[in-house]
User: Fold this.
Amino acid sequence: QVQLVESGGGLVQAGGSLRLSCAASGRAFSSYAMGWFPQTPGKEREFVAAISWSGVSTNDADSVKGRFTISRDNAKNTVYLQMNSLKPEDTAVYYCARDTWYQRPLTSSLPQRYNYWGQGTQVTVSS
Assistant:
């Protein structure tokens, strides 16, 4: 059974930074792509970033390019999301997720291609 546990959320002023972490249990973490998806009340989960199983390839949403960076440490079974220059519109619960496909060649921005999800961590950016 795969479990994902996010941490690192909190309250920060606009322009500030946070680093989210997602620790994964279970084997084969290093063989699956990972993604981060924020969600606000009443809205669908959105895509912000994904990283391939090897860590070589990443994919970011246009809204966070140049501000957010996804990375992973396969030795620690952990994926990170470094969030800089935060804006009030970044406020959301941030979920990490694991891809369904073993060693998918390309990362995906579609939530339906991820089948394991964490419980989420709240990020609140004040103006």
Notes: The mean pLDDT is 96. The CA atoms of residues 100 and 114 lie 5 Å apart. The longest strand covers residues 92-99.
